[in-house]
Amino acid sequence: MDYAILTGGDIVPLGKDGVTAMHKVFDWASASRKGVVLFVDEADAFLRKRSKVAISEDLRSTLNAFLYRTGEASRRFMLVLASNQPDQFDWAVNDRLDDLVRFSKPGQPERLRMLKLYFSLYILDPPRVAWWKRPRHIPLPPDVDWEEKLTEISRRIEGFSGREISKLVIAWQADAYGSTEGRLDETMMDRCVGEMLEQHSQKQVWDKGTLDQS
């Protein structure tokens, strides 16, 4: 099948042209000989509840156009919606979804694998930039069991998303490059972990406040 990828943020700024754009996408899907997979990331940005959320008339019209074009089952296209806030979908959108797939936060084994992956990518073999004078690898203390260290950290960062894990290892790289010796040690790693845990806790407080308000 052919495929199209867009985000809810692509639709919102279109204003009154959103209806035309929406019809063009589904017209293209209808004309495709292979059929089309339409993937919409951050779909809640324009498929929000009409009854409880204040939305503009242009966005309401775009949502109505989407609902009109997806009102019946079709062999011409498959719709895939991704959202961190599926509870924000309009009830008519939920009625059009055949299957719901939840992607939970990574467990400890997954966190460890991701730490190893990003550690290899950003610490052991960071990408070289032509004007960057640092060596390709970041020197590490030889007496540290890095497998054990990463395992310990993977247990400490319970609840972290993949993006947060990536940012943690990038912070290790930045600290190493900014240090006098240009190397990474356990103290620097633990300091970054502590800062990230504090930031993660603050985000949890913000998220809880948003849910309470809704």
From TrEMBL:
Record keywords: Coiled coil
Native organism: Geodia barretti (Barrett's horny sponge)
A GO molecular-function annotation: ATP hydrolysis activity
Pfam family, one: AAA
GO BP of this protein: mitochondrion organization
Organism domain of life: Eukaryota
Coiled coil as UniProt keyword: yes
Protein name stated in the entry: ATPase family AAA domain-containing protein 3-A
Keyword flag Repressor: no
GO cellular component: a single term: mitochondrion
Domain ATPase AAA-type core: 8-103
